[in-house]
Amino acid sequence: MDIENMRAFNKVAELKSISAAANELHHLQSNMSNKIKNIEKQFNTQLFFRHSNGVELTQNGEKLYQQFKKMILLWEETTAIISNKEENILIGIPQSTFPMQFNTIIKDFYSQFPNKKLSIVSATTNELIYKIVNRELTIAYVAELEKDNLFQDKQIISEMLSRDKLVFIGKTKGIPLQKILTEERLYVFNKQCYSYRALINLMNDFNIQNTSISEINIVETLFDICKNELGIGIIPESIAVKYNIQVYETLPDKYSELRQMFIYHKDHTISSAEKWLIEKSKPVFKN
After folding, report:
1. Which of 101, 105, 197, 276 has its CA 20 to 30 A from that of 186?
2. Average pLDDT over residues 37-55
3. b/e string for 16-54 if b means 16 or more Cβ within 10 A?
4. pLDDT (0 to 100) of residue 83
5. Which residues form the HTH lysR-type domain (predicted)?
6. Are the CB atoms for 139 and 262 separated by under 8 Å?
7. Rounded CA gap, 138 and 264, in Å?
8. In terms of CATH, what superfamily is 164-257?
9. 92 pairs with which residues across the strands?
């Protein structure tokens, strides 16, 4: 079993199509089909269910996919170590929502990949998308409202990490939503972020105008302002929980639904080190 056959098998599993996998890996479809048949013959078991719309992994196929995934990653790590190849990974993050636990992941990253360089850029979601499209970043972690569709650009590939909700923090208990929107001073991280877009969508639908919307891009400062009842902030629920904020009110569902994703350019091949970062960050975002 060689590494290219493992990659071929996993690509078919991920795309759920032999023809799509063959096209992406620049193989003939007949060659790709033969690779899959030979792997099934080697393990003496059916690994895919075939149907008119493509293929699906069987139970044994799923087990083999996970094992091949580990073996491919190990092979790529070994190749990088032996060749002493230095790789510069450029990651984009939204500072306002990035998990604090990621600091530990970065420390572990340098232990795991001593020959890699890791550069981190903080920017708004729109800026991160622009940098990915223009190949200024290799991967980026971003957040968007559920109703937004920021990744229409066919040059971008995105993958879901987690879902979240936007909440009001500050003195909101017992105050009607309309009064919060019309009379309170409101704070968001910045006016290019999802919190501001959600707030504007909400106010437009209620036909409300409020000129008292301010930007505070330092999380701790925003919390202090709201704690001292100097205004009301709009932040993700996950951040409220991580900072032990126990009293908050969720925005109406239509405006609060948020998703965390990672994105990369369609022509960028995810390296073993980047795969490691992505896999390690998934549970952090889901907590």
Report:
1. 101
2. 92
3. ebbebbbeebebeeeebeebbeebbeeeeeebbeeeeeb
4. 63
5. 1-58
6. yes
7. 6
8. Periplasmic binding protein-like II (3.40.190.10)
9. 121, 140
Each residue's pLDDT tens digit, 176-191 = 888 888 888 899 988 8
Distance CA(264)–CA(159), nearest Å, equals 9
CATH of domain 83-162+259-285: 3.40.190.10
* Strands 248-250 vs 257-265: parallel, antiparallel or unpaired: unpaired
pLDDT at residue number 17: 92
Closest CA to 10 of 39, 31, 53: 39
What pLDDT was estimated at residue 192?
79
Provide CB contacts within 8 A for 104, sequence distance 6+: none
* pLDDT for residue 100 is more than 80: no
**Interval 264-282: pLDDT, tens:** 988 888 888 888 888 887 7
pTM: 0.62
**Helices assigned H by DSSP within the chain:** 3-15, 18-24, 29-43, 59-83, 102-112, 125-133, 177-183, 194-205, 219-227, 237-242, 253-256, 272-286
Query: What tokens does 92 get?
Result: 């984009």
- The pLDDT tens digits for 23-39 are 888 888 899 999 999 99
Are 109 and 136 in contact by the 8 Å Cβ rule? The answer is no
Fold agreement (83-162+259-285, 164-257): yes
- CA angle 23-29-34, nearest 5°? 130
Q: Which of 161, 160, 162, 157 is nearest to 269 (CA)?
A: 157
What are the structural domain ranges in the chain?
A: 3-80, 83-162+259-285, 164-257
Q: Give the SS3 label for residue 172.
A: coil
CA distance 146 to 259: 6
Sign of the four-CA dihedral 95, 151, 131, 115: positive
